[in-house]
Amino acid sequence: MAISIDTRTIQPGDWFIPVQGDQFNGRDFIPEAIKKGAKILDVDIQRYAKSYRKKLRCHVIGITGSAGKTTMKDTLYAVLSQRYRVVKTEENQNNQFGVPLTILKADFNTDILIVEMGMRGLGEIDELARIARPTHCLITTIGTTHIELLGSQYAIAKAKTEIFLKALPWEVSPRVAYLNESSPYYDYQMKRAKRAGFIPKLFGGIEKPEQNVNAAYLIGREFGLSDAEIRSGFDAYTPSSHRMISLSCQGVTVLDDSYNANPDGMTYALQQLKRQPGRHLLVVGDMLELGATADEAHQAVINEAIEANVSVIFSYGHHWGNVSPQGIPFEHFSTHQDLINRVLSELKRGDVVLVKGSRSMKMEQVVTAIQGRLS
Question: What is the pLDDT of residues 270-291, one digit of tens each?
């Protein structure tokens, strides 16, 4: 059955669950839902999904990590769909409402359910994992995202490894943990996984794109896919909105990775940019929630940009204003419009433009402006 918590997207015949948020009360929208032809399911969505999960007999792959969760989720969906009936988290629905919605999309015909899990503090992954009860867990990497809120990278590792729960009597076994041996706190992740009864399976790689590919091959093979089927999955891969989407505009390639940014995600994006032929331009907004490490993290991007053969950096935001360019052309702007005007004036045929920044920096405006000018 189709379930929605948003009356803006409801279709006739859908079930509407009126969830309660900090800034809204879903019950206020019940009349609108009924008017649109929905049926009302007035339940606590987390409790309902937790009970529903017990009825499912599919494998559940839980994905978390400091960066690359959505890319990994979309990649695994494309790969595993070559042989299985797969349901996945849509877009960025990885929170206390999105995870239950994802679970409720699965049914008795589902072979594999892929659930992305996000967090901003301790206890949140634990809460989501108790709803989803993953049979297979993947931690992409332990980075510094949300370090301002958690205080240390160790605390981030502790929060991410909450995904490893001890099995309940009704859960299938064996349970598997896919761990990145190239990640910080890899030994700690291994210890937590084994303690909860998961069998560790390892992947790695020098650069982050390579790590993602290796993880997909590992998991694909674990589920019995041939390498040819896995390669077909890569060919069928479709990214979520503003997640490393390649757009071609009159000879200019735009890598739209504007949904969010953190140090690990920035490294991954630059390593992808490095693989592209053409002149490389980097358009960046601030990376937020990095606390006392913010200026250091932004400065570190300069060396990574040099490694990625970036010709010029165009930046926007407070933290980028504190950066010392050191060996690479660097232009900083205080408004979106000034940034956009300068980027548009610089573009040449054959350029590859990476656009990235934290969500609140609204860097998708740059992508829209380039598309508008070159369309």
Answer: 999 999 999 999 999 999 989 8
